[in-house]
User: Fold this.
Amino acid sequence: MERQACIITGTVGVDAHVIGTKIISRALGEAGFKVIALGAQTPVEEFIMAAQETAADAMMISSLYGMAELDLEGFRDKCTEAGLEDILLYVGGILGVSRRDFAEDEVKFKRLGFDRVYPPETDIRAAIEDLRGDLSRKLAERP
Amino acid sequence: MRSTRLFVDFGSTFTKLVAFDLEGEELLARVQVPSTVDHDITIGLEQAFALLSETVPIEESERRQTVACSSAAGGLRVVCVGLVPEYTTEAGRRAALGAGAKIVGSYSFELSKAELREIEDIAPDIVLLTGGTDGGNRKVITHNAALLARCGSGVSNVIVAGNKSAYDDVAVLLVGSGKNVIYTGNVMPEIGVLEVEAANAKIRDLFIARITEAKGIGRARSMIADVIMPTPAAVLEAAKLLADGTHGQPGLGELLLVDVGGATTDVYSVAKGTPTLQSVRCLGLPEPYAKRTVEGDLGLFHNLDTLKAIAGVEDLPDSFEEAVAAMCRENSVPRGEEQTACHLLLSKVAVRSAVNRHVGSLKSIVTPNGEVVVQRGKDLTRVHWVVGAGGPISFSVDPAEVLEGALFEDDLPTLLKPRAPEMLLDSENVLFALGLLAQSEPAVALRLMQRYVVPLCARACQTVGGRK
Assistant:
């Protein structure tokens, strides 16, 4: 039987906007993923520990309060130190200062080591399709 | 009755010998002679003993009890090998600096063969191998251990302070390599946690057990009790005691100490460094409470060119070049008005640059919720004491002027230097000795410190007051 992929969700830092991550968690569950929902206001360290414990395949991090860039500074590097060098990192929401170009945010977060970056009002189903694609590609790459 | 205790610092330039009377709690004498580490360290030591005994009678038993620190023969040279530069490599560097080491190389991620050859050529006293949180990444530390195992005689001591889950694999790789390998606690056991004490202690142990022999300092052992730590570690011990006190004797509280030497400028802060402004967010690795940084390019005699470059062209006396050249040639204390002026200016520049690099800084970032201020490093703006140490400050014509370089500057408001501290001076240049004494008699050492670390006079206070 195929292993159920495990996804960590939550909002990072001191962001209390919980609705987005709830919708994501629910949609992921309905799509057949194992979901570890950390909920609102989750410190970066907790994302990492949860991923280590559950040998998670991906993290879907939400942020709406515009401080994601500060919260997620060095996040890929931290994952690497923590032995999560292969984990998929997705982030979405209002990531930068308002009225800023999303393309800029995308570049910035990709540089931070995120695999995918989503603007506000993304359809979660599209993101789940991306996730399936990325996961099967990872699986194929494994020796 | 007098109870004489002797302390030695084998420096790169001078061998210093200090005698304290522990009963009367006073400094009996301090002498220094040129170091002779290149041929036989004991020659300089004998000269120092002879010089001292001209003023203080010393008995053979007192000589044998002498305790020493050393920064001779290049100091304790450490190469740090970690994973991510900002995390485990940096954590390793901090552990090494706190142990009084001189960092002669830093490497991150998987070492290449070229880097390995580089490390062999550097031939450090110790390679500090870190990488991965506990239970985290094991690939990189095992890769690096495998390479180090194949390394030639350039690497003889390896301290492993990384992911403990990789230790069994690392041990298999390093066993039989002929290297002395020591395992200790992870410098970064979890993300966001810095634990440097264990690695710190192992570095010091290794220094006593093996390194002093290799440095030609071991010979001195036959004459004195022991060489117990690198000199910067002794100064850090002194700074900690002065700040924290001991056994019911209160210390001064948080402080910043600047030690200008011939080859380097060392800055020590014993302070939490947490934000003093409201709603400031801290980023980066946590800071050690007792932190040392060292500027290898800011020594007063060996790096005059760097200092000259930093000092810039403005406010230089006309004959500056000439005076600097003369000081370089003579490699001694400044003579005459011109040299003295240059010396003062250069010392101040050294203090200023070294403290600017030691303290934390603020950066403001605009977000949808308004402005957020981010702090990296330590906020030392409210530190109440700034201590000056080292010959170039202690014996300067105007120590307060030199130490002013450590103070907060209105035109550099993001650098978190002390705003309105009181200034102190290691007037007799004996802090290293008191750091050594603190290992056995902390209470006496503290009282001696309170006696010989003296407040700097009116001029400084006025200047500081003016900035409040």
Notes: Chain B has three domains: 4-72+218-224, 77-211, 231-467. Residues 336-358 of chain B form the longest helix (23 residues). Chain B touches chain A at residues 83-84, 86-88, 131-133, 135-139, 163, 188, 190-192, 281, 283, 365-369, 372, 374 (CB under 8 Å).
